[in-house]
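Severity: low
Component: inverse-folding endpoint
Summary: output formatting inconsistent between runs
Steps to reproduce: submit the following structure tokens with default settings.
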């Protein structure tokens, strides 16, 4: 394979992996530990 093809596939794979991890943090099991600063602020 060409070097440019391998680099493009690697960068695309990293981007997809990072996006999947971000969705897991935002909506998965770890999201239970996140706090909402707007709910914590009492007016």
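Observed output (run 2 of 3):
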């Amino acid at each position: 394979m060409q070097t440019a093809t391998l680099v493009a596939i690697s960068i695309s794979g990293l981007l997809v992996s990072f996006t999947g991890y971000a969705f897991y943090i935002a909506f998965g099991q770890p999201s239970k530990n996140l706090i909402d600063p707007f709910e914590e602020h009492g007016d």
